[in-house]
Write a structure and sequence with these properties.
The complex is a heterodimer of chains A (389) and B (98). Chain A contains one helix and 32 strands. Chain A is mainly β and 389 residues long. Chain B contains two helices and five strands. A five-stranded mixed β-sheet of chain B has the order 2-1-5-3-4, covered by helices on one side. In chain B, α1 packs across α2. Classes of the chains: A mainly beta (389), B alpha+beta (98).
Chain lengths: 389, 98
């Protein structure tokens, strides 16, 4: 049968899966899966059997991870999912909640699961989850039980972390391809952290990023802490793990030293106002980079009402619009931070889903685009998953 | 009614969104003597429901309502209300508007 692809699409009203062969011309939809739940993250994993993870939440039901082992036909919520430790107990006799001795002053609340990724290839049972409020969780048993990587939330700046407009979500988790001790995480309005000891300790890695105002940032060991940077999405170069790319609130950046420092890579993106603003950034296995820049941080819609993807074929030195052949209709849409993705087939496919629920894909590096028929709820995440049939 | 224990059987209803957390059912029955005991039995029988209905401080989530017959339990002064056969405990999603 060979390789098949399943495009996993999360929306604010459930998930939709699109199945195709490696030619990717005909797509068959299943879904909606998990109808009624809002999904911010989804992951297909084939390292030990096919398993799909969905990060679901609902205003009246809280956030949890749900698992399917039959390509979405049935789901089960994870019983021991990401949780913050309780700061107190409820006394049924008195009907009152009391804080535990020594518990932190502030409760942390689990609002959403923003990111789900597989662990390092040497750890096929390991998965990571990024949450709102911002924290990192890990599972070592294929997602059945999760525990917090509390080295991150023990960082002395944690009391000063604040939310961006979308909430205080930990939206990016990256693992060094040959050194599982090294990881990066990013969260909006806080910044980028790196660990070199498998999560035990974390260091801020925001030098060179533009800053948004944050009050009361503490000094630690005599040094002002460098938080308040609004990373929107970070991607790792496919060939050089010291190279990272970032779409942030103020523009697009690159690091060539493992995120020790960042510099702008914005040639060709426009200089008017803050029109380098956008959410997603994606990189192909050949190193092509893709963005969906918006009009500005205030408007947050496609520039001029026209969908345009920007591409860089020289590792970010310059950017060019790939106007594609989208319908010439007015289109004031947005593409959210996990709404743009690239698969690892040859030639690679680029996919994006819009805030208006439309799906597009290109098999020629963005020069021409096809729509996957249908209009869906607001699309939050698009994840291509290759499955050996 | 289980005369030996004083337990009575009541009806329970949970939102369909939480069906998977309640043994793949939305309507079922449980036995308890009092309302607070019924809530505890519900949460002990289906531990995932506790997570979805209560927040990190064990408070009923902001958008969850729990009704005992026609009364919101948050209106009740006491939860040790003796149950009667046929009583209902209903979990509702408090997400109003369009």
């Amino acid at each position: 049968m060979g390789t098949r692809i399943i495009l996993l699409v999360g929306t604010t009203k459930g998930a939709f899966f699109f199945h195709s062969d490696s030619g990717r011309r005909n797509w068959q939809m299943t879904g909606p899966h998990l109808g009624g739940w809002e999904l911010y993250s989804i992951l297909g994993d084939s390292r030990n059997g096919h398993r799909i993870f969905a990060g679901t939440h609902h205003k009246s039901g809280g956030a949890t991870i749900q698992i399917s082992d039959d390509l979405g036909q049935t789901w089960r919520p994870v019983e021991h999912g990401p949780r913050f430790p309780r700061a107190g107990d409820f006394d049924w006799e008195t009907g009152a909640w009391t804080r535990k001795d020594g518990a932190p002053e502030r409760e942390w609340v689990l609002n959403r699961i923003w990111q789900l990724i597989p662990g390092h290839p040497t750890q096929p049972g390991t998965f990571f989850a990024g949450t709102e409020e911002a924290a990192l969780f890990v599972s070592h048993d294929r997602g059945d039980t999760w525990e917090e990587v509390d080295g991150l939330t023990s960082h002395p700046t944690r009391p000063h972390w604040g939310p961006g407009a979308g909430g205080m979500g930990l939206h990016t988790i990256l693992i060094h391809p040959s050194n599982p001790q090294r990881m990066w995480v990013a969260m909006s309005a806080v910044g980028v952290f790196r660990t070199d000891d498998r999560g035990a300790t974390w260091q801020l890695r925001n030098a060179g990023m533009r800053k948004v105002p944050v009050e009361g940032v503490p000094n630690v060991d005599g040094a002002a802490q460098d938080i308040g940077h609004c990373a929107h999405k970070v991607a790792l170069d496919p060939d050089d793990p010291d190279v990272l790319y970032m779409q942030d609130h103020g523009g697009v950046r690159k690091s060539t030293n493992g995120a020790d420092s960042w510099f702008a890579i914005e040639e060709g993106l426009g200089q008017e106002g803050d029109e380098r603003f956008g959410f997603p950034i994606a990189v192909s296995r050949s190193g092509d980079l893709f963005l969906f820049p918006l009009r500005s941080s205030e408007h947050r819609v496609a520039r001029g009402g026209r969908m345009v993807v920007f591409r860089s074929t020289n590792r970010g030195e310059s950017w060019h619009p790939v106007k594609g052949d989208f319908p010439a209709t007015t289109n004031y849409v947005n593409v959210l931070r996990d709404g743009l993705a690239v698969d690892s087939l040859e030639p690679y496919g680029v996919y994006f889903g819009t805030s208006s629920g439309e799906l597009f894909y290109s098999l020629d590096r963005g020069d021409t685009w096809d729509a996957i028929p249908g209009r869906f709820p607001r699309i939050t995440c698009v994840k291509p998953w290759l499955v050996e049939a | 009614m289980d005369a030996s224990s004083g337990n009575v059987s009541i009806k329970v209803c949970v939102p369909s969104l939480l069906r998977d957390c309640a043994g793949n059912q939305t309507h079922f029955s449980l036995e308890a003597c009092t309302l607070d005991e019924a809530i505890q039995v519900l949460l002990e029988t289906y531990p995932l429901l506790r997570f979805h209905l209560y927040d990190e401080a064990d408070r009923l989530r902001q958008h969850v309502l729990m009704y005992y017959n026609d009364q919101n339990i948050s209106w009740l002064e006491r939860l040790d209300v003796p149950l009667r056969p046929g009583d209902e405990l209903r979990v509702l999603q408090n997400v109003s508007g369009g």
